[in-house]
Specification:
about 240 residues, 9 helices, about 0% strand, globular
Length: about 240
């Protein structure tokens, strides 16, 4: 199995915009509905946290908010996949079974675990240099180690999040696959495409910035367009991986 690393930025964004236009009414209404739900939940959580006598209740509310956030994330992932594949998305697309929630949680626990290992290993040497430098009153060595440690952390974080950015879609596309294997598959799909994916993310970020300065309303177009474009890239890389 191989991965073709070349894809057209403009073609993916154009495809995302076309699909957005075809489903604009549903996407905007669903976006408003899920945003209002999340705002309401945050208000409820804030109210629970200010109640000092209700620590247990605050914990319960916090877990409930996290669960609803997970369900919304899964729902939007399913919606974007359906739209990118030309299938009509509907409100019942947001429905999901508890077994799927568990699969997402398990896969993202692998994600978090590996992320911690990657970043700790990347920063460990520089952390040691920093400690030695400041302990020995060699300020230039300690400062240099600290700066390089931060740079290493940032670079590894960018690499890791870019490489495994399609994990949620891999989970949905492979319901029988074990959680650890879905994590590995997500990394395999993007192998060899990291630099291009980072460049694509920069372009998408700039697109959303333009949407923001267009009286903010432009975000209602730019965000779903860029999200769908990302899924189209996933579809392309998945096909190349399977070829």
């Amino acid at each position: 199995m191989t991965t073709q690393t070349s894809f057209s930025f403009s073609a993916m964004i154009k495809s995302g915009y076309t699909l957005f236009k075809n489903h604009a009414k549903f996407i905007i209404l669903a976006g408003l509905a899920t945003t209002l739900v999340q705002i309401l939940l945050q208000l409820i959580q804030s109210g629970a946290q200010t109640n000092r006598d209700g620590i247990f209740m605050g914990l319960i509310v916090g877990l409930f908010v996290v669960l609803i956030g997970l369900i919304i994330t899964i729902g939007w992932s399913k919606v974007l996949l359906k739209i990118s594949r030309g299938d009509g998305a509907a409100w019942n697309t947001f429905k999901s079974e508890p077994s799927l929630w568990i699969r997402f949680i398990k896969a993202y626990l692998w994600y978090i675990g590996y992320f911690i290992v990657y970043t700790v290993v990347a920063s460990l040497v520089f952390a040691i240099i920093t400690i030695i430098g400041f302990t020995a009153n060699i300020l230039w060595l300690g400062t240099t180690g600290a700066i390089l440690g931060v740079i290493a952390f940032v670079l590894v974080s960018i690499y890791f999040t870019t490489r495994y950015q399609f994990l949620r879609y891999v989970i949905l596309d492979n319901p029988e696959m074990r959680s650890r294997d879905t994590f590995r598959r997500a990394g395999a799909i993007t192998k060899g495409s990291i630099i291009q994916l980072i460049g694509f993310a920069i372009i998408l970020g700039f697109t959303n910035f333009l949407g923001f300065i267009c009286l903010v309303v432009g975000l209602a177009v730019s965000i779903p367009t860029t999200k769908i474009a990302q899924v189209k890239v996933y579809e392309y890389l998945k096909e190349q991986y399977s070829a």
